[in-house]
């Protein structure tokens, strides 16, 4: 990718068959970057201001609690993400995301 992409969008692109590397500077979602251990959570996101402005919670306080409770990998361990459909992955994945309906997950 030559342009910033949100993590959720990169996963969707992978489900369509693409294999690519997304370096830190092209991760467009601050919350995903923090959860993946790529960077610290920006204060405006950590405070709940940005998630609340985007309608992701009922209040800024609730958004701040959500941001605090999101599991996060240790900062500095990762510098980007490799995205690929499992059957085409030219690497051994650390994480496999299953995109399924609830019945398939059961």
Automatic annotation (TrEMBL):
Q: What's the protein here called? A: Uncharacterized protein
Alphabetized InterPro entries for the sequence: DUF169
Q: Name one Pfam family in it.
A: DUF169
State the organism of origin. Answer: candidate division MSBL1 archaeon SCGC-AAA382A20
